[in-house]
Design goal:
Order of helices and strands: HHHHHHHHH
Number of strands: 0
Number of helices: 9
CATH class: Mainly Alpha
Largest sheet: none
Number of domains: 1
Distance between the termini: 62 Å
Structural class: mainly alpha
Length: about 190
């Protein structure tokens, strides 16, 4: 069999990360197998070990990829006005019925926090780093004190978690509206 070019290997690696990031958020860590990921990426199970040493390495890389994807706009914002707009847009997107229903493309912490709290290894460490990273991005005054960012993050995660417990669209929206009201109050009180 001919050797894969470096560009082809990178494209394959990206397909695996995309598939894993989506499936892990949709199904959870335990319910997602390497075979599921490789099938979703359009590849054979045997090719997995050309890209990752273990499922744990894949989980860490896919989690990092998912986080990078959902925060890229906030991190790319270079002016205070752009950061405020990106943060506001992130919060607006976060507190939607679409996010509640579409775990596969939403916040990896909202989808995987409980699973990640039960594992040891690189993914658990990345989860802790992500909490600090998100708290800093959600903190409005760009100081090192991320208490406000952590409080906003707690409201966002909690709102989505509670909304996912309901099958009633009106109840889902009521929970999301309450979360939005809580974020707004918090932003006003902590200025």
């Amino acid at each position: 069999m001919p050797r894969m070019s470096e560009a082809e290997k990178q494209r394959s690696h990206q397909r695996i990360l995309d598939a894993a990031a989506r499936l892990l958020r949709e199904k959870g860590l335990e319910a997602t197998s390497v075979g599921d990921v490789m099938k979703a990426a359009g590849m054979t199970h045997g090719g997995f070990y050309r890209h990752f040493k273990s499922k744990e390495d894949l989980i860490a890389a896919a989690f990092q990829h998912a986080v990078d994807t959902v925060v890229c706009e906030m991190e790319a914002a270079s002016t205070p006005a752009a950061r405020k707009a990106a943060r506001s847009g992130y919060i607006d997107q976060y507190l939607t019925a679409r996010h509640v229903q579409d775990r596969g493309s939403g916040c990896p912490l909202a989808a995987l926090a409980e699973d990640l709290s039960r594992v040891q290894g690189p993914a658990r460490g990345l989860a802790g780093e992500t909490v600090a990273r998100m708290a800093a991005l959600l903190n409005e005054d760009s100081t090192r004190d991320t208490a406000k960012g952590r409080a906003i993050m707690a409201l966002l995660l909690g709102s989505v978690a509670l909304a996912r417990l309901s099958d009633d669209d009106e109840d889902v929206q009521a929970v999301l509206d309450a979360g939005r009201a809580g974020v707004t109050l918090l932003q006003k009180q902590l200025k």
